[in-house]
Design a protein that fits this description.
By secondary structure, this protein is α+β, with helices and mostly antiparallel strands. It contains 6 helices and 10 strands; from the N terminus they run H-H-E-E-E-E-H-E-E-E-H-E-H-E-E-H. About 40% of the residues lie in helices and about 20% in strands. The protein has a 5-stranded mixed β-barrel with strand order 1-2-3-6-5. The protein has a two-stranded antiparallel sheet with strand order 4-8. A two-stranded antiparallel ribbon has the order 9-10. A hairpin with a 2-residue loop joins strand 2 and strand 3. The N and C termini lie far apart (about 75 Å).
Length: about 200
C-alpha cells in the first residue's frame, strides 16, 4: 500500500465519520424539537390569549370524558370542558355511546396521574345553565381539551362567544385526528350536526 492509498483511506474515513456525526446530532435535534412542539397550546399561550390567570385545582371524580369534579378554592366544583364534546355515558339507560367509555377512561387516567391540575376561564360566562364551571383544564401544563381532541375522543362543539378564544386552535387539532380517522372519526357520519349517532356504528 502506497502513500496515496493511505491518504485516500484517511480522507474517506474522515468524511464518513463526519456524515455519521451529522446524522446523530441532526436526529437528536429533531427529536428535541418534536418534544417541545408536541403540544400546541401552552398555559402561557392560553393566559395571554384570554387575559386570565390559572387557578389550582385537585381531582375528585369523573362523570364522562368532558365532565368531572375538581376541588377549586376549597370547594368541590363540577367542571365542563369548554368547546369539546365526548360521547355520552347514558348512565340512566346503562347504554354508553360508542367511545364514551374510552373517552372517560382516558380522562380518568390523565387526571388521576396528574401532579398538577389548573383551570383557566375564558372571556364569557364562567358557568353553564347547570351550574358547572366552564373552563380550560391544564394537566401538568398540557391542555386536557387538546389531548382529547388529538386522540379522537372529542369533537369541537358548543361554541358560544366570547368563550371561544381558542376555537381556531381546537379546530386545527381536531382536523388532524379526523385525517387519521382516530376513534370517533373512524365512521364518517358518527358525529353529525345535532350530535353523536350511535346507530351509525351499531347497525
Amino acid at each position: 500500500m502506497n502513500i496515496a492509498d493511505i491518504k485516500t483511506i484517511i480522507t474517506s474515513g474522515t468524511v464518513l465519520l463526519a456524515v455519521v456525526l451529522y446524522l446523530i446530532f441532526s436526529n437528536t435535534g429533531t427529536k428535541e424539537t418534536k418534544q417541545e412542539d408536541e403540544y400546541k397550546i401552552t398555559p402561557q399561550y392560553a393566559m395571554d390569549a384570554t387575559g386570565n390567570q390559572l387557578i389550582e385545582a385537585q381531582y375528585v371524580s369523573t362523570n364522562d370524558g368532558d365532565t368531572f369534579r375538581l376541588q377549586v378554592d376549597g370547594k368541590e366544583k363540577r367542571i365542563r370542558l369548554l368547546m369539546v364534546d365526548t360521547p355520552e355515558m347514558n348512565y340512566e339507560e346503562n347504554n354508553p355511546m360508542p367511545y364514551a367509555e374510552e373517552a372517560k377512561d382516558y380522562t380518568v387516567k390523565v387526571l388521576e396521574n396528574a401532579s398538577k391540575i389548573e383551570i383557566l376561564h375564558d372571556l364569557g360566562p364562567q358557568t353553564d345553565r347547570y351550574g358547572r364551571l366552564l373552563t380550560y383544564v391544564f394537566v401538568d401544563d398540557v391542555l386536557l381539551q387538546e389531548l382529547l381532541l388529538s386522540e379522537g375522543y372529542a369533537a369541537v362543539r358548543f361554541i358560544h362567544e366570547p368563550n371561544n378564544t381558542l376555537e381556531e386552535e381546537f379546530r386545527e387539532i381536531e382536523s388532524l385526528a379526523k385525517e387519521k380517522k382516530l376513534n370517533i372519526w373512524k365512521e364518517a357520519n358518527y358525529l353529525q350536526k345535532d350530535g353523536f349517532h350511535p346507530e351509525v356504528i351499531e347497525n
